[in-house]
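Risk register update: the risk of archive-format incompatibility is retired. Evidence:
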Amino acid sequence: MRDREIPERERSGEGPRRRKRKKKKSHRLYAFVVLVFGIAIIAVAFMLLFYVQKIEVSGNEYTAEDEIIEAVKDDRLSMNSLYILGKYALGKGTVIPCLDQMKVRMKNPWTLKVEVREKPIVGYIQNGEKYGYFDKEGLVVCESSSLMEGLPYIEGIEVGEIRLYRHLKSGDTGIFEQILETSKEVTKYELVTDRIVCEEDNICLYVGNVRICLGESVSSAQIAQIEPILEKLGNQEGTLHLEHYTEMSKTITFEAGPVSEELQPELEADPQEPSEEPGETG
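Archived output:
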């Protein structure tokens, strides 16, 4: 009976079908292995091609280039240029507090270009041997042992601990806010000042050999008058009173005479250099 059954199965085609099934399975397995191997090759090529080798930074003046690069590469996946581009495109990338804007684009698969716009500095406070530079909101955006030229020095008011990327704080918040407002307006009108001083709740600017008194509250209208008046004064030395100047009451007086010596800045910079600028405009 067994001898008869075998030929019957062969005649029925079950044997060849099994062999075909085995061949199909082996072909599928081979195709799967090739597919996995191909994906692995593509993945490796992708990682190698888009591996970040260089980051070019532009637009920074006081922010260190290394600090910006570290912010861009702040996680373990940030070695891939496409990942970094996607991260910043979705607004998930790290932006340093001293920057208003940070754009990342691809120069080539292995090189990124980072363009930044820093927050404008409106003044600085001396902190021991270092200088704390702050923006219009009172945020310390830079701390350096180097003195930047062309920025007003703030004095006459006590502030708390000066720390990078922290807001300055003062016990007298009202007058401190007015000092910040003064710094902002001075920057707005591109007025070059030596110092902004709080003298018994009276805010004064020092521009060369002229002391400008603004009072307890500072307005944009007051700051707008300064440069035209300085041009008319030429090299005259004295005190310009704008405390009572408003859009309704346009009272301005100038008191000729030497500026008080006790109010001169205690800086290493030569105090005579800035005083030449008002004379040149006159």
